[in-house]
Specification:
single chain, 256 residues, alpha/beta, 8-stranded parallel beta barrel, two-stranded antiparallel ribbon, 42% helix, 19% strand, globular
């Protein structure tokens, strides 16, 4: 993993990205910390052209986005237009809004729409990924529903955006999932899994939790991962400090 492949997920600092001026200030901080790229998610209603101007001005690459789930499934052309304006060729379906993973009809509607949307994205030169949480590790027809999603969508239409924390929270193994997604894993969310004295898990900075990141990253690289995206859903203090701690750990231990 090279430093040029590491990005910050803006969802980590979403509270500081709700206006154009705040987004610009946050981009400046992220670049100063040392990140060369960002994934767009959670920012306010800033027009794509303005976002491009801000990121270009700070020397940040927009490596990927999250687009609204209903738009991806039902209005993919809208999402495609946004990505084209951003100059970005990688996005993800971020949350299974309205999907009942206990209902076969609901699951099959999801995979059918994902595959169809992914084909539309691919025709436009854009790659569509599926971003999961822990809920996708519920059993469905004898296996985690996440396996069903990938088994019933074409690899050329839908790829994986694995999330290290949520794989662990779902009771599965991050290294094994990186191996399963060989050739289908262009981006990966790096997020550590901490355990508190209250026996409750929490989102931790990279290197501050329990996950074997050296093994995870090595396997992800073997699977063709291009972007390693640092994210922390909640932070104990200033989220920019958390982004800094995570990047310092990666640079000291895992960046070649």
């Amino acid at each position: 993993m090279k430093i040029s492949q590491v990005a910050a997920q803006l969802y980590t600092v979403r509270e500081y990205c709700q206006t154009a001026s705040d987004l610009a200030a946050s981009a400046r901080k992220i670049r100063a910390i040392g990140y060369p790229a960002v994934q767009l998610s959670g920012q306010g209603p800033v027009p794509p052209d303005e976002i491009v101007k801000i990121m270009d001005g700070e020397g940040l690459v927009i490596c990927a986005t999250h687009e609204p789930s209903p738009v991806i499934l039902d209005e993919p052309e809208r999402a495609i237009e946004t990505l084209q304006r951003l100059g970005c060729r990688l996005t993800a379906y971020a949350w299974p809004e309205g999907v009942d993973f206990g209902d076969a009809g609901s699951v099959n509607t999801l995979v059918r729409k994902l595959d169809a949307a992914g084909a539309r994205f691919r025709a436009a030169g854009i790659t569509l990924g599926y971003h999961h949480h822990d809920i996708e590790f519920v059993r469905f027809q004898g296996a985690p529903v996440l396996e069903y999603v990938f088994a019933h969508t074409a690899p050329q239409n839908v790829v994986a955006e694995l999330d290290t924390y949520w794989v662990q929270a779902g009771g599965s193994d991050c290294v094994e999932w990186c191996r399963k997604m060989r050739g289908r894993l262009p981006f990966l969310h790096l997020k550590d899994y901490g355990m508190g004295l209250d026996r409750k898990p929490f989102f931790a900075e990279i290197g501050q939790g329990t996950l074997p990141f050296a093994r995870i990253i090595a396997e992800a690289e073997r699977s063709g991962c291009q972007w390693f995206i640092v994210e922390q859903d909640t932070c104990p203090h200033d989220p920019f400090d958390s982004l800094r701690i995570s990047l310092d750990y990666l640079k000291s231990n895992l960046v070649s």
